[in-house]
Design a protein that fits this description.
The protein has one domain. It is globular. By secondary structure, the chain is mainly alpha-helical.
C-alpha cells in the first residue's frame, strides 16, 4: 500500500468555508468542467485523492495535478458528497475496510452543508468561467 495513504488523511470532518462541495461556499465557484472533474474524484470507482485546498502548501502552483504531500487531508466536502450519493471510490472502500473512515460518521449538520446531487452542484457552477 502507498505509504501516503494513512488514517490521518481522513481526519477533516467539516468542509472548509470555500469548499466547492458546500452549498453555501464563500468565494468563487468553478466552471462546470472543473466541478465535473472534482465530482469524478469521489464518484468514479477508481477515484483519486483530492486534498482540501486549505491543506495544500502555498508553494504548490495548483495549475495541474500534483503529488500528494505530507500533511494534506482529503476534502471533507467530497467525502460527504460521495456518502450522500452512497458511492465509494477505491480509496474510501480501503479506508472503510481498515477502520479509518466510515461514510456513516458524518452528522446531519455536516451532511446538510454539502450539495445533495450532481445536478445541484452543476447548477451552482460558474457557467461564465472559461478556465
Amino acid at each position: 500500500m502507498d505509504s501516503r495513504i494513512k488514517p490521518e488523511i481522513f481526519k477533516q470532518r467539516v468542509p472548509c468555508l470555500t469548499c466547492p462541495f458546500r452549498k453555501d461556499a464563500e468565494g468563487e465557484r468553478h466552471s462546470p468542467e472543473m466541478v465535473a472533474s472534482y465530482i469524478s474524484y469521489f464518484l468514479h470507482p477508481q477515484g483519486a485523492t483530492f486534498p482540501c485546498h486549505k491543506s495544500v502548501t502555498k508553494d504548490d502552483p495548483r495549475t495541474e495535478w500534483s503529488e500528494w504531500q505530507d500533511g494534506q487531508v482529503l476534502c471533507a466536502g467530497g467525502l460527504i458528497f460521495a456518502a450522500k450519493l452512497e458511492r465509494r471510490n477505491a480509496l474510501v472502500a480501503l479506508a472503510e475496510r481498515e477502520g479509518w473512515y466510515s461514510q456513516l460518521q458524518h452528522t446531519p449538520e455536516e451532511r446538510a452543508l454539502v450539495f445533495d446531487s450532481v445536478e445541484e452542484m452543476l447548477l451552482a457552477a460558474d457557467w461564465d468561467d472559461e478556465r
